TrEMBL record:
Keywords: Isomerase, Pyridoxal phosphate
Amino-acid positions noted as binding substrate in the UniProt annotation, renumbered to this chain: 135, 310
Function: Catalyzes the interconversion of L-alanine and D-alanine. May also act on other amino acids.
Organism listed in the record: Paenibacillus rhizovicinus
GO MF annotations in UniProt: alanine racemase activity; pyridoxal phosphate binding
Any single GO BP term: peptidoglycan biosynthetic process
Active-site residues per Swiss-Prot or TrEMBL entry: 36, 263
PTM-bearing positions, type N6-(pyridoxal phosphate)lysine: 36
Gene behind the chain: alr
UniProt name for this protein: Alanine racemase
Amino acid sequence: MLRNTWAEISLSRIRENMLNIRRSLPNTVKLMAVVKANGYGHGDIESAMSAIRGGADYLAVAYLEEGIRLRDAGLKHPILVLTPIQPELVQLALKHDLALTVTSAKRFSEMRAIKPYGSESKLRVHVKMDTGLGRIGIRTKQEWDELVPWLRSEDVEVDGFYTHFATAGLADTSFLNQQASRFIEMKAWGSSSGLDIRHYHCAGSIAALRFPDLAMDMVRIGAAMYGFYPSQLSCPVKLNPALSLHSQLIQVKQLAKGEVLGYDNSYRAEEDEWIGTVPIGYADGWTQRMQGTDVLVGGRRAPVVGKIYMDQLMIKLPGPCAEGTHVTLIGSQGEQRITFSELAVHIGSVAQEVSTSLGVRIVRTYNDFEEMRPRWDKQTWPNEINQAVI
Ligand SMILES: *Cc1c(COP(=O)(O)O)cnc(C)c1O
């Protein structure tokens, strides 16, 4: 490994998280594993395979190119692209057998103009309804009525009809209930349209776990499969974060009381103290907002001091340490533990912002490829994974 800053990802944890979610829901509910943004930073192909072993039936990504990557890796499960694609790319989506999100008759008719009627391949779509998130989707009955004739075509398969909640993580459930009722109303538009709609779905991770009654035909699980759940809620199933982040001290020095360090002299030593330099910075996704957090060294907490640089940061060590000493930025050392939730609270965001920010320069290591091997015929293993195992 050339870089001494790395993320360790436990694929068995992703699988176990998914299995625990699977067990908490009726067997009739399908599980869609959301592996957008490189599997929330955990590796898209690896996460998808682990999720499938944990019982996932479907995969989802945000963008077309993410779906193509999964197909190129040899994954055969149905894949939904959650963000509407540019209509002119419809042939590319068809070629890779990707299901598309549809949000209006206009956009759909533009796609239709490119995909010839009656050609062999089916255009598989999930219609997105906006029940209150206000992001994308159909909001009115009139918009739905305009779309329906376009969907009533031999070569169009309406695989899904879905919405997304705005407040699934809030203690106050009134807006969620409002969205759920609106979706039930819209569902009736779907069932009375005469279209053969295969799956109705509305719940992401939090809604699926908190309100299993909203699971309907399918749930879309992202955050929870990586082990994330809002810390202010109690999680009804056992979830473990799959990723930990590590580095090493590349320099250790003593600073005398009153000496300064960092860009803009951002830190002044309060006493004679030991300072370590860690090779991770904002270009790796460890943003300047991480100033004021801790890392772990020798089983103890060490605060980040001064501004975070592009490629390094500095910490105040508990005492003298050897260069090369192991540093844990996310994960545990002895009794001490730095969690995604702790970092998320510090930056005023959610765990998945921390994990998806981890840049491409951070090496991903997978500590249990071996465990996955037996279920996968070597022939069907994606090449990248074969190479990584060998
Ligand atoms: C990202 C995404 C999800 C996954 O949400 P989690 O909270 O991470 O489980 C589900 N549905 C849609 C539409 C999404 O964009």
